[in-house]
Amino acid sequence: MAESGTPPADSGALDDLRFIRQTMERSAAFTAVPGWGMVIAGVTTLPIAWIASHHPLDMRWLEIWIAEAVLAVALAMISIHRKAVRSGLPWTSGPGRKVLSSLVPPMAAAALLTTPLFRANLAYALPGMWLLLYGVGVITAGAYSVPVVPVMGGAFMVLGAATLLMPIPGNWAMAVGFGGLHIVFGIWIARRYGG
Question: Which of 33, 38, 50, 89 yields a CA-CA distance of 20 to 30 A from 25?
Answer without folding.
Answer: 38
